[in-house]
């Protein structure tokens, strides 16, 4: 690790925890607690594998193995894990795994001599005392196996905690406008600072730029989290960072009760239709379709696959709310666009992994621009009282702020992981609420998107408060807490200084 990573990445607590964890293994072997060789083999294997997880995590993303990674592992399918492995696998990681394998075969045969009759008691009590010490001091938070358990428990808890109230009555909804079609487009991993329409130096959103005068472009919107599973439920339901109640209303059900036919088209896979928190919301739509589910969770499918179904839905009679979830600019970036959109290439003189990755991401944004414009263009041709709202679930770090990695992490956070695009388009005949106000630089956090959609479209459920809407004159600014506790504006203003 001293050879291949920056020593400053390792905190004192991490080193202490590693030493104490090592001591627990030594004590178990010293006490001869594990009589059978296969039990000793298991202990040695899990101990060596612990350092494989820790060290390869540092080598890949400059962070220890945290509970956050369990969200990624549990939420990812085989194809995504394969893509992730290929992107981060390197010679140092390969060499370390080989070295660790050799170490396992060496230590599995090592024994500490029996010196006294109290040796077993010393081993058991000593091991227990260290585990208690790790827990009481909080050092256990640096332990990979603790984080595996904690991450899995947190994942299951999140699934169970999102209890949706499906008992939404028509009398609880106030329809204040006769708007006909809402299209809500959810992007994926698209960072605002990497889009030309937000000032990026590459022309990767030419179509949106061409119609910029007809868009309401919001410049200061952030997501609450860096992982989809945590961020999206807060956008689509009455759940927000300050929620204490368990029963939440979701936007799909609100439009159902208001007399709209709801559709959900997703180019992302469900874990299953009703167990995943986001799919639980989607399943309330009158018609829902998961394209990656249909083709065996193949994340190579491009977003254009949902355009034919979308266009057919637009032609159906009646009022409708269409929710579209894109694969967007989700990693692996070079697989998110067809070869015809390979516009940006790394400078041949500086063809580093960093520059290649940036170019792949910019091409993915370029293709995303085409998809979003195609969706909008079809809607405009219908000549109805309609609106389209586009935002991303979270941003993405692409070697930003001096970092040496791409992706997202809850341990090493950057502004770009949270800063997201937020665009509204409306037809000429669209009816705005009476208290509508366009403030492009309004400081907003996306967990109040639920209220904003209802407010601007004129479909207000009793759980909605117009003062939470980004579109309202009565909007009330608030502290923007990301990851549950961090004041985004304070944290990054101090860091920038």
From TrEMBL:
Pfam families: Sulfatase (PF00884)
Protein name: Phosphoethanolamine transferase
Domain of life: Bacteria
Keywords assigned by UniProt, alphabetized: Cell membrane, Membrane, Transferase, Transmembrane, Transmembrane helix
Topological type in the membrane: Multi-pass membrane protein
The UniProt record lists the keyword Kinase: no
GO cellular component, one term: plasma membrane
Compartments in which it is found: Cell membrane
Species: Hwangdonia lutea
